[in-house]
């Protein structure tokens, strides 16, 4: 099964993608994790995207499309995957469609975690505080970067819901429920 998980920063997308990946026995492909790994390893891509990601801005489409294209061609992604944090722009979604079409594949379902913005800001600032006290803070979990991430989401990523709704692929789930309830709602949406 080839899935896309859509959701704002702080919507619980990463948590749910990890659970779903385990449950369905397919890899979770998180572009955020891939970019953070590149930054911490100091690869050429990491050096290129460090400042952009730290400000909370999106990195260029062509760069992230190339990373995903390479990743989904790996053997473990042959029978399916969950994309977490990609696509984030209409151009990325179109590029993904093209890559899959060339391989005679397609996205089976797009799941969206719906969480209102008021809840997002407090959720993510709490997460940032917890991470800081554990020594695992993300460089983009400052209030300033978070506001940029939310603005990027609003402007660039939210239109993807309509893009996929028009294709009949979108299922929207209330992301304000408990973690377990969101997880079961996602599984139900897949069965539906
Ligand atoms: P979150 O959803 O919590 O904001 P992610 O871990 O998904 O965080 O992404 C972190 C950062 O990595 C983004 O703010 C952006 O700078 C970069 N990034 C991740 N995925 C993409 C993408 N598909 N396109 C452009 N930039 C991306």
What descriptive keywords fit this protein?
single chain; 192 residues; alpha/beta; Rossmann fold; 5-stranded parallel sheet; 5 strands; globular; binds adenosine-5'-diphosphate
Explain briefly what this protein structure is:
The chain has 192 residues and is of the alpha/beta class. Helices cover 59% and strands 12% of the residues. A 5-stranded parallel sheet has the order 2-3-1-4-5, sandwiched between helices.
Strand arrangement within the widest β-sheet reads 2-3-1-4-5
Number of helices: 9
**Content of β-strand:** 5-15%
CATH architecture: 3-Layer(aba) Sandwich
The largest pleated sheet is described as: 5 strands, parallel
What does this structure look like?
The protein has 192 residues and is an alpha/beta fold. The chain has a single domain (2-191), classed as 3-Layer(aba) Sandwich (Rossmann fold). The protein contains 9 helices and 5 strands; from the N terminus they run βαβαααβαβαααβα. The protein has a 5-stranded parallel beta sheet, sandwiched between helices. Helix 1 (13-24) packs across helix 9 and helix 2 (31-41) crosses helix 3 (44-55). The longest helix is centred in the middle third of the chain and has 18 residues, at 117-134. The chain starts with a strand and ends with a helix. The mean pLDDT is 94. The site of adenosine-5'-diphosphate (ADP) has 17 residues, from helix 2 and helix 3.
